[in-house]
Structure to design on (559 residues):
């Protein structure tokens, strides 16, 4: 026990505390913007796709291509490519503020695709029934499609949040701060295995919490 | 109430035009229960969806309640659809909403009533379909029959003049089917609602419809009052439906009767004649003997009917036949 404790004796817990806070802020901020941007994009992708309410082959092809390009770019590359743009909107490419724009750009296309898939799972008959009631397209989206796809959308948010956790760790490479940054600077560059272990455990706990909360929400809204 | 003037519908699939409905003219009177029967792919589903323009016609004119459905803009169409209820084979209820919220949906979408007025109307509707105790449940907690009742309540929410039923009982067991059909008949009678239903089961037509149209390959091949079409089918498709319903195989029956002596006739009684002691009286007076080979006494909606296949021997056969015809019994000599 003593040996175990002495192994972690050199850790600066305050630093870890700050890094955890940074990670949570990056996660919260980027998840919020990802949902705000990705949900409408996902709905648009769905509506424009073949045989849907607003079938628009050209628009769908353009959006789809854009999403695919962003998704095929490795996140580490995106982080670097985005630097000038990030500086333009946040004034810095460092810290939490500097990390959020690339995180959002990296996760939004991913999330939008998941939303599109979730909407596709909604029974066509329900859309037809809603149309037969005299609903406008906007009403079909807000009163039928989104409520029916809610479990799927919560599952999509969960998967996206977990992906964002790993992205935040990667963002540490370009000076974003957070647990990933800590692991790289102390655990990797200074060979402090103790710090590495603590950050890994913290990230693991964070992912577990996200998955559990997400699963609970999915079950709650499934109504099955 | 509903008129089709030379309406046709063609789908374009992979660059080829596939006709789903050939030029069709049709009239459904107000307050009628109008049945469309056909096998899958016969075009009945397309015809039904043309009425509330879930399908856009390729040509022709559709008039519902003196309004030209084909000429409506999107706003007009939305208002019109609020006046047409629709129920579905797979119910199409929203799994994410409670029974009460499902029923309230057409009203909240229309946005004309206050919340309390909607609640009151929903309670009324659930009472009518016998589901008052289930208002707070979710569709997944209900049986098929209950789900369809919710569907019916939802379709009636806006007090429509027309109710469209898309294979509404095809996913239900026979007992539940009977109770749902009974509810539809009740609604038709009490609310003077015009109902158009499509089905592939003759039994559904026989129980609730006033008029029936038989469809095959995008064409209405036979149409008329149910008793007329059902008891005296002319088109091969109609005959097949009637035989399916009665589970008769004609060629098999002919073989079975091969060794029976005498003439074989099929008598069809309708209305009060069904209950008259006609056979006995005529047999006594003309001296013929008869044996019943096959038969069925049943009802078409509210009209009783009987259909008997008899073997007749001895006596004055011709006189007996003349008496049958004179008594308004439809007679068909099979052998």
């Amino acid at each position: 026990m003593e040996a175990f404790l002495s192994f972690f004796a050199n850790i600066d817990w305050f630093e870890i505390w700050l890094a955890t806070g940074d990670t949570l802020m990056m996660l919260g901020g980027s998840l919020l913007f990802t949902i705000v941007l990705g949900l409408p994009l996902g709905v648009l992708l769905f509506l424009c796709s073949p045989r849907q309410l607003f079938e628009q082959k050209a628009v769908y092809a353009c959006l789809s291509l854009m999403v695919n390009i962003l998704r095929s770019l490795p996140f580490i590359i995106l982080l670097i490519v985005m630097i000038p743009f990030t500086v333009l909107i946040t004034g810095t490419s460092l810290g939490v503020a500097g990390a959020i724009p690339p995180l959002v750009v990296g996760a939004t296309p991913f999330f939008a695709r998941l939303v599109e898939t979730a909407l596709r799972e909604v029974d066509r008959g329900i859309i037809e029934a809603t149309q037969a009631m005299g609903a406008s397209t906007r009403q079909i989206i807000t009163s039928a499609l989104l409520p029916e796809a809610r479990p799927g959308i919560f599952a999509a948010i969960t998967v996206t949040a977990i992906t964002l956790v790993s992205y935040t760790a990667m963002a540490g490479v370009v000076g974003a701060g957070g647990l990933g940054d800590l692991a790289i600077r102390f655990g990797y560059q200074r060979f402090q295995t103790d710090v590495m272990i603590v950050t890994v455990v913290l990230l693991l706990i964070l992912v577990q919490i996200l998955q559990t909360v997400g699963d609970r929400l999915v079950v709650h809204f499934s109504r099955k | 109430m509903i008129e089709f003037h030379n309406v046709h519908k063609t789908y374009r699939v992979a660059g080829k035009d596939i006709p789903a409905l050939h030029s069709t003219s049709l009239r459904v009177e107000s307050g009628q229960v109008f049945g469309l029967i056909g096998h899958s792919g016969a075009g009945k589903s397309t015809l039904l969806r043309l009425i509330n323009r879930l399908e856009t016609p390729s040509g022709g004119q559709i008039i519902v309640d003196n309004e030209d459905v084909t000429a409506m803009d999107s706003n007009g169409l939305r208002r019109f659809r609020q006046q047409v209820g629709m129920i579905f084979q797979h119910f199409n209820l929203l799994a994410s909403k409670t029974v009460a919220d499902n029923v309230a949906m057409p009203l909240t979408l229309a946005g004309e009533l206050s919340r309390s007025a909607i609640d009151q109307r929903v309670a009324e509707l659930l009472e009518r379909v016998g589901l008052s105790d289930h208002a707070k449940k979710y569709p997944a907690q209900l049986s098929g029959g209950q789900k369809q009742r919710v569907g019916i309540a939802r379709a009636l929410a806006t007090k429509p003049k027309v109710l469209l039923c898309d294979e509404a009982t095809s996913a239900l067991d026979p007992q539940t089917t009977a109770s749902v059909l009974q509810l539809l008949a009740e609604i038709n009678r009490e609310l003077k609602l015009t109902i158009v239903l499509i089905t592939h089961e003759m039994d559904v037509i026989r129980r609730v419809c006033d008029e029936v149209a038989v469809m095959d390959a995008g064409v209405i091949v036979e149409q008329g009052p149910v008793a007329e079409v059902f008891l005296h089918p002319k088109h091969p498709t109609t005959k097949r439906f009637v035989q399916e319903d009665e589970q008769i195989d004609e060629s098999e029956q002919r073989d079975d009767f091969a060794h029976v002596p005498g003439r074989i006739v099929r008598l069809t009684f309708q209305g009060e004649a069904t209950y008259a002691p006609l056979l006995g009286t005529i047999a006594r007076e003309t001296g013929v003997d008869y044996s019943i080979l096959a038969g069925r006494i049943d009802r078409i909606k509210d009209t009783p009917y009987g259909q008997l296949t008899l073997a007749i021997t001895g006596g004055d056969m011709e006189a007996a036949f003349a008496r049958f015809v004179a008594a308004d019994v439809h007679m068909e000599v099979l052998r």
